[in-house]
Amino acid sequence: MKRALITGITGQDGSYLAELLLEKGYAVYGLVRRKSKLDFNNAEHLKGKVTFIFGDMTDSASLLRAMEIAKPDEIYNLAAQSFVTTSWETPLSTADINAIGVTKLLEAVRLVKPDTRVYQASTSEMFGKVQTIPQNEKTPFYPRSPYGVSKLYGHWIIKNYRESYGMFACSGILFNHESERRGEEFVTRKITISVAKIKAGLQDHVELGNLNASRDWGHSADYVRAMWLMLQQDKADDYVVATGKTHTVREFVSLAFLAAGMELEFHGEGVQEYATLKGTDRILVKVNPEFFRPAEVDLLIGDATKAKTILGWEPEITYEELVNRMVKSDIQLLVEGKI
């Protein structure tokens, strides 16, 4: 039986990955941060199936302890301060977790079980101010946030340990991926929750930032399959994981409302732009400049040819199905009083 350790197991990716590994017969261990109020979040349903270990990416001793307990054949490092906006407010802690934390984990692996295969969750935000369209493994990086910069350190330290110590360490440069389990602070989930509340008459409208920002959106359940495939190869390498299609925030919010039976009409431009329910003057979407980033990433679209060719990976859930699932899920959660 293979043994796997997942950091960040309470996030959307961690929970989907744990389910995948359990289906494949793994013994799964999950690193969880100890809080005054313990919250397993998306991993709540995994109790009794996963062995949880308390630890923190900023605490070397806890990472060494986790390695000694789990003795993993594979590690999936999904733990991060992953909210881009917050990274401007807390740049130092973002760096501690996303950058130095990766090095601490690699050192723990090197000291306890150096043959462990390591997956690092890199991000398309490292491309930032994109230098080529679409972006692939050879595209130069130009991060535009403390989050992107911290992730770039993590990405390069993985490559450095791979080349310096011969460790099986690889990074998945994952483009935006969402799901019904996405955190409520992310714009996609903010939109789908707002749509559910507006549909129920509990909210008047939703306020958003840059509607022109374009992202390559896929579903988390598809992307964790790519993570697993990377660690099954004969040779460690880095891969872009993306759908190859891009959509604006404007398109996302339009499709989300449509999934709830409401069609939007957009009016105006820039900060004056807003959207009404089609055929009425009822405003459902407003632009609020407070939600603009200090440095915006305008267009991200990935070229996953390498992952498709070498890993045999293909996304199965379409963009339209992704949005529809998120809206339907939040409508149901609202009915159940969970949001």
UniProtKB/TrEMBL annotation:
Listed InterPro entries: GDP_Man_deHydtase, NAD(P)-bd_dom, NAD(P)-bd_dom_sf
Substrates-to-products reaction catalysed:
GDP-alpha-D-mannose = GDP-4-dehydro-alpha-D-rhamnose + H2O
Residues in domain NAD(P)-binding?
A: 5-326
Which Pfam family is one of those matched by this entry? Answer: GDP_Man_Dehyd
E.C. code? 4.2.1.47
Question: Which residues are recorded as binding NADP(+)?
Answer: H205
Q: Does the keyword DNA repair apply?
A: no
Broad EC category? lyase
Q: Which NCBIfam families match?
A: gmd
Write the protein's name. GDP-mannose 4,6-dehydratase
Instruction: Provide the organism lineage as a comma list.
Output: Bacteria, Pseudomonadati, Fibrobacterota, Fibrobacteria, Fibrobacterales
